[in-house]
Amino acid sequence: MAPNPLVEAFTNLVNRIRGLNYIDEATLKEVLREIQRILLRADVSADVVLSITKTIEERFRQEKPPQGITSKEFLLYLLYQELVKALGGEEAPNVNIGKRPYKLMLIGVEGSGKTTSAAKLARFYIKRNLRVGLIETDTYRPGAYHQLKQLAERVNALFYGEEDSKDPPIAILRHGLEYMQRNRVDLVIIDTAGRHRNEEELLKEAKAIYDEAKPDEVMLVIDATVGRQAAAQTEAFMKYVPINSVFLTKMDSTAKAGGALTSVIKSGGARIKFIGVGEDIDEIEVFDANKYVSRLLGMGDLEALVEKIRAIEEESKIMEEIEEGKINLLTIKKQIDSIMKLGPPLVRSWSYYQVVCCQCSIGL
Prior knowledge:
Elements: H1 5-18, H2 25-41, H3 46-62, H4 71-86, E1 102-107, H5 114-126, E2 132-136, H6 144-155, E3 158-160, H7 169-182, E4 187-191, H8 200-213, E5 217-223, H9 229-238, E6 245-249, H10 257-267, E7 271-276, E8 284-286, H11 289-296, H12 302-323, H13 329-339, H14 345-361
Parallel strand pairs: 1-4, 1-5, 2-3, 2-4, 5-6, 6-7
Antiparallel strand pairs: 7-8
Helix pairs in contact: 1-2, 2-3, 3-4, 4-11, 4-12, 5-6, 7-8, 9-10, 12-13
């Protein structure tokens, strides 16, 4: 498999920053310009690129690196934080299925990978011990019925479709839902025909399927290679049906992944929930901005740096609480958890005696 050009570019940048002896004004400007070039090549919009680099620059100038952290390590940490923020923040999406049966409707333009994504989702939830059923309502694309039927058999999901049916998609859907109910399925995934965002009649049909199915979730499937056009797709579909989540396909090889991700997030109203990281049925991941940025930057031991800085920041907050007399059992627990992340035993030992002395001084 060819390397992802976006990962390659950021990995080279991280290695370059690590090799710096010091960061002066000219070096900082040069690094920020390289970040801008990488993001623009990834089809990230100019306003998002400028926002990211401006925030990194301001924070680097105004904030003092935590004790024991060099300026180049701090710059890497700021890059990591601002990329995570631009990609939706640190909180991972909730992929648990609450009610039974749960109805998930997939929509998207033709060629976005809906049918394969339907099978990937089925596989994902079957591995979590759910009984999953797939319904094919696409009566337009030749082979849609056979493709989903074969994929359903491969992942051991129930399947309903009507080969060469003259019935409209709404009727097929109705029959499929009845079949899934009889078989006590936990999760019903409804695959629909591919629609172009300018095909009004097909978009109206999607609305009719939505009204009939009354799905608990509508997931828009988008090919990440479209880059910034992902926002236009999201907004077009949202005029007809509410979009609750997004599945981005082909994230493993495209240079435009950054543009697709930031465009969907910026368009609002839909959370990126899953990404496709390969063609195989198991190559699906819950989208986690932390993990994605870690992979993007070729983190390796940089992950340890992020954890170390977070531990130092947490330690500082806890010490402030102790000095202000705001101490309880939870504070002590947080202190113990924090000092255990700080590294060598000598450091942990010093922190331990420090907190004990503080506790004694306030009469605990």
